[in-house]
Specification:
It holds the Pfam family Talin_IBS2B. By secondary structure, the chain is mostly helical. The chain has twelve helices and no strands. It has one domain (about 20-370): Four Helix Bundle (Hemerythrin (Met), subunit A). Helix 6 packs antiparallel against helix 7.
């Protein structure tokens, strides 16, 4: 007979597993499986800690960060019932570090191919497809977490965390589309972007009002309003992403030579294998909470860690074959200018070593408790980040 874990934390673990799995898999699809080469302009792929390091060193450090987090999960799963909170924190952290790894790997590939003799710089479109799609993903994930949260789970910290993320990425998305509207030649396209932006910000305003009411009067009625007004934010933002990422608004894909395609496959392949191993860890842990007496699921987590470790070693071997990127960032002249995010949640992520995994988790908690992003998308959207103060 299967023995399930206590429902009061099994639900939390399952939700975090689903969130992490969707996040890293979708980012990998956008950057690794799309067949294109993308330079991620926002600061999640250019963290402040490692900004002065070479592309080569930045990628190596991030590979080690992922290994440390996954190793920590593999150790904790042996005593899962006692350390389940630590596993939850580490799963969230794994989502962040793997996302950052994929983004840095994509930037590394862009910079590497820019050193090839047959490199042709890409033509920019009105919209950066990855930035818009990633912003939509973060909004969707935060809205889904808010909708799925039970009444007793909506603590001030939980609301602040989700609202800050929604605020941050609505600001990113509307700024991207506002710039596209200003540059578009077709008046109908300009009007469509403006109307979409207005739709998103109005929906966000309704969500803000419902959350304010819930904070002032913590009742089931106001909780129901929060859930109801998540829907228009979700629908309007996803509609805007679909519209903004049409081929007509995005620049043409970079045409790669056969040599460049082979290099891309050699580097993106092991990076994708790392992502796949982490996805399998999420699936194994999710299954374990419903069958906690099955030792094969614990062994499966350890097998996934071994797979991630092998893929990481493979990736390290591949990037060491390209010493041209052991230069300092100043020597890379073909890199597009970065558009830095103001949110410290991504850019303050410290380096990880085997001895400071706990410090990293504590720092991440401190960041969420003390920081909120700056929004430029109007008072309604910026209010999201201050609701729980």
């Amino acid at each position: 007979m299967k023995l399930t874990m206590c429902s009061n934390y099994a639900r939390t673990i399952a939700s975090i597993c689903d969130h992490t799995q969707v996040k890293i898999h979708t980012v990998a699809e956008l950057l690794l499986l799309s067949g294109n080469v993308t330079f991620v302009r926002h600061s999640t792929a250019d963290d402040t800690v490692n900004h002065d390091r070479s592309p080569h060193d930045r990628l190596l450090l991030q590979v080690n960060s992922v290994l440390d987090v996954v190793s920590h999960i593999a150790k904790c799963v042996n005593d899962f019932k006692v350390k389940w909170k630590s596993v939850c924190d580490s799963l969230n952290l794994m989502g962040d570090t793997v996302t950052l790894l994929v983004q840095i790997c994509s930037n590394y590939m862009y910079q590497l191919l820019s050193t090839y003799d047959d490199w042709v710089p890409p033509k920019e479109g009105l919209i950066d497809k990855y930035d818009a799609a990633h912003a939509g993903l973060e909004i969707r994930l935060s809205c889904m977490r808010l909708k799925k949260a039970r009444y007793d789970e909506l603590s001030p910290h939980f609301i602040m965390e989700l609202c800050s993320n929604i605020s941050k990425y609505i600001s990113v998305l509307t700024d991207i589309c506002r710039n596209a509207s200003e540059k578009a030649d077709d008046p109908a396209v300009r009007d469509q972007f403006k109307l979409c932006i207005k739709s998103v910000t109005c929906a966000a305003g309704c969500l803000i009002a419902s959350i304010k009411s819930f904070k002032m009067e913590n009742t089931l009625t106001h909780h129901s309003r929060v859930l109801v007004f998540c829907e228009p934010v979700l629908a309007s933002s996803q509609a805007l992403v679909v519209f903004a990422t049409e081929d007509a608004f995005c620049g043409p894909p970079i045409e790669l030579s056969e040599n460049a395609k082979e290099t891309q496959k050699n580097i993106f392949g092991p990076c994708m294998n790392i992502v796949s191993g982490c996805v399998q860890i999420c699936k194994a842990i999710r299954e374990y909470i419903h069958d906690s007496t099955n030792p094969s699921l614990v062994q499966r987590v350890h097998a996934c860690f071994d797979s991630v470790q092998r893929s990481a070693n493979h990736l390290i071997e591949e990037i060491r074959l390209h010493p041209v990127l052991i230069k300092t960032p100043d020597s890379m002249s073909s890199v597009p200018p970065l558009q830095r995010d103001s949110s410290p949640t991504d850019k303050d992520l410290p380096e990880v070593s085997a001895n400071n995994i706990h410090t990293l988790l504590v720092d991440k908690e401190r960041i969420h408790n003390t920081s909120s992003p700056t929004s430029n998308s109007g008072s309604d959207v910026s209010t999201l980040s201050t609701l729980s103060r």
